Amino acid sequence: MKLKTVILAGTALAFAGSSALATDLTLVSWGGAYQASQKAAYADPYTADNPDITVIWDESSAEAVAKLRAMNEAGNITWDLVDVVASDAIRLCDEGLALEIDPDTDLAAAPDGTPASEDFGDLLVSECFIPQIVYSTTFGYRSDVADWGGKEPDDICDVFDLEAFPGKRSLEKRPINNMEWALLCDGVAKEEVYDVLETEEGQDRAFAKLDTIKDNVVWWSAGAETPQLLADSEVVIGSTYNGRLFALIEEQKQPVKMLWDAQVFDLDGWIIPAGLPEDRLAEVKKFVKYATDTQRLADQAKYISYGPARKSSAPLVGKHASLGIDMAPHMPTDPENAKNTFLYNYEWWADYRDDIDAKFQAWLAQ
Amino acid sequence: MSDTTQDGQLLTTADGKPLKASLAKALRREKLRALMLIAPLLIFVLITFVAPIADMLFRSVENGIVADTLPKTVVALEAWDSTSGEAPDETVFAALYEDMVIAVDEKTHTRLGSRLNYEESGISSLFRKTGRRIKRMDEAGPFKEQFLDADKDWGTVETWQVLKRYSPRITSGYFLNSFDAQLTADGVEMKPEDERIYMFLFGRTLFLSIVITISCLLLGYPIAFLLAALPLRTSNLLMILVLLPFWTSLLVRTSAWKVLLQQQGVINDFLVWTGLISEAGRLVMINNQTGTIIAMTHILLPFMILPLYSVMKTISPTYVRAAKSLGANDWISFWRVYFPQSVPGIGAGAVLVFILSIGYYITPELVGGTSGIFISNRIAYHISSSLNWGLAAALGTLLLVAVMVLFVVYDKIVGIDNVKLG
Predict the structure, then answer these.
(1) Could you point out which of A309, A320, B342, B395 has its C-alpha 20 to 30 Å from the C-alpha of B384?
(2) Per the database record, which ranges form the ABC transmembrane type-1 domain (chain B) (predicted)?
């Protein structure tokens, strides 16, 4: 295979002489439906316009942080553009593994001329981060639970209410989001959650609240687990990414409904690895500029129910490419869904993640 | 043998050289040739196996980042008394300013922040925030005021104590952390109760690995016995059944156990249908230790059966027949004659299964819930997610040492010569 490429390249050089060689662009993403949406919305149209570019996908986003560090230490960066969640982007930027960008020169302006820095606004949470989508971690529940006597949960605290809503829950096996939800349901005001969580007493309060349901929780570590657990009736209510629940409800037609209350917004986007050679960097920047423009981000919402990160993309969101349903009501940012939302505090978690994670794991193991 | 003849003359070869020297030369040449033959493999093993492991192990004590990023501050801090209860004076801050200007330029300050944040929450944002402010600071000073203005944490003693404590190039911090201890201003202390986890996980890993090894042995021994006793045609067929799961993807096998064991799964459905358990009393067999033990026993079973089988195959049936003809019953002839001969197989299988299970993490992660996860899951977390490679290296070193100690104990009890793979 490799030999063949070399021979082919050699032949091409010999015959074409001055003509440019095909360029490979290695994009790293999450695989599954999300990567498929990126391919359909950005990569396919881009390669159609630029036939000399070949896009290679690598499904390594889940281990991207560690792999980038290893590549950096080895001095051999093989990735061109990496899709990561915002907290990982911040970590990579801190470690000097991601390249800092200038939004106004590196990213396309909105069609009406609004500079990218304004169009993305607050979502540019790190100097290295190029946001693509807004997703949320929220709950889905089965709508056919006999024990609930016809009631349906409509409040985040129903997750902690075992009397009205008996049954197993699934929560993510990490402190982020769970600690915030626990405090919200323990009577802490939304604005004060992180101040309270910073103190020992606050952390104890959150754990005490989680203790009330601990025996009824299945802990997940991969986003696909909750949809499967819900489909199998293993759990009656569980947290996961909203796009996974959309697929479960609209594509697989399972008797599951969304509980949007206190959904936690999070961001996913690109980072450019630090240390790319000039020529490759130029190619990558060209692609990024195209892939994050207003139309491309709006297009992605045709394939998956995640909200575009640009303000100017929102009005362009249309119908699902194969189901033909209107996508706007399924977006986490839709006003109907976003009545009560919670914003993940990146800076705060970057500081407290190590400490609280140790406590959380010790608490889990008890 | 003597190298002189009877009349005192040296033995020589045909060309007149002393025989001894000539022989030694030939041997040396042969050894060199042999070394050259294995050289590619030796170099390969050294480069791809020994060196990376040594490098990884070294990370468990390596701590050059503080002295490399803030060289002048580290020197200036030597004069500061960390028990004084007061933050250092202007000279230290001036050194910090000089260091930070360079660090911000090279973008290494946030990396140092992440490193120190493992020890004290909040230092990560302290360095990030200060890094953004450093360009706007007045070069003429006074620096203490300006740093305190950028972030008041620069005025707290704890920040500086952490910085001073972790300024040496070699640290015991990661190892202490692995023992659920920490370095504080008053010396080494155990961590608060609610943060102790690693020793507990080490204990659980060892305990569960032993349970898995024993259940593999209990299940594997009769199968290997049967395989060895059956005629070749039938045993080959059965051998394929043993190996079949071996060729299936690990994730598929683990997921299959989920389908079987979960509360709405096949086994529970069957038990409810037969009336053995009630609808409300469905058994919890997954996302706990039971799940880990069942799934891992299944996955590691071939590693027990294969060495057992190959050893049993070499045990001649005539011994058992002889025992029986001398009056022993079935049990005595098995226990006194057959079993002792199969011990080397048990030894090999048990060591193999135990060592494999102690480092497993995918299966416990998927079916272990919270009570069935291993220390390796934490190591994986620190490698891939928290990027605390120093701690991961320290935990890995401890695991390696634990395995080696067990190996020595095993050698003392069973004897390593008593291990046979076939």
Answers:
(1) A309
(2) 202-410
User: pLDDT value at position A131?
Assistant: 96
**Span(s) in chain B for CATH 1.10.3720.10:** 198-418
> Worst-scoring range by mean pLDDT, A252-261, B10-19, B188-197?
B10-19
Domain A137-266+338-365 has CATH 3.40.190.10: yes
Q: Report pLDDT for A13.
A: 45
pLDDT score recorded for residue B321: 93
Question: Taking CB atoms and an 8 Å cutoff, what residues of chain A touch B370?
Answer: 173, 219, 364-365
Cβ contact, residue pair A357, B263, below 8 Å: no
Q: Enumerate the domain spans of chain A.
A: 21-134+267-330, 137-266+338-365
pLDDT of residue B8: 63
CB contact under 8 A, B111 and A95: yes
CB-nearest to A94 from B113, B365, B370 is B113
- Band of residue A1 on the pLDDT scale cut at 50, 70, 90: very low
In Å, the largest CA–CA distance within chain B is: 102
Cβ neighbours of residue A293 under 8 Å, at least 6 residues apart? A107, A108
B47's tokens: 């480069």
- pTM for the full model? 0.86
CB B158 within 8 A of CB B137: no
pLDDT of residue A19: 40
- Cis-peptide, bond into residue B142, ω within 30° of zero: yes
Contact A354 B201 (CB under 8 A): no
Instruction: Confirm or reject contact between B108 and chain A (CB < 8 A).
Output: yes
CB pairs under 8 A between A and B: 84
Contacts of A230 in chain B (CB under 8 A): none
In contact, B201 and B376? CB cutoff 8 Å: no
The answer to whether the beta carbons of residues B219 and B303 sit under 8 Å apart is no
Crossing angle of helices B90-106/B109-117, nearest 10°?
Answer: 110
Closest residue to A233, CB basis, from B200, B264, B384: B264
Instruction: Look at the domain A21-134+267-330 and name its fold.
Output: D-Maltodextrin-Binding Protein; domain 2 (3.40.190)
Could you report the predicted ipTM of this complex, rounded to two decimals?
0.85
The backbone torsions φ and ψ at residue A112, rounded to the nearest 5 degrees and listed phi first, read -85, 5
Whether residue B201 and residue A359 make contact (CB cut-off 8 A), yes or no, is no
Contact B107 A91 (CB under 8 A): no
Query: What is the average pLDDT across B289-297?
Result: 94
State mean pLDDT over B127-136. Answer: 89
pLDDT digits (tens, 9 = 90+) for B401-413: 988 888 888 888 7
Domain A21-134+267-330 matches domain A137-266+338-365 at the CATH topology level: yes
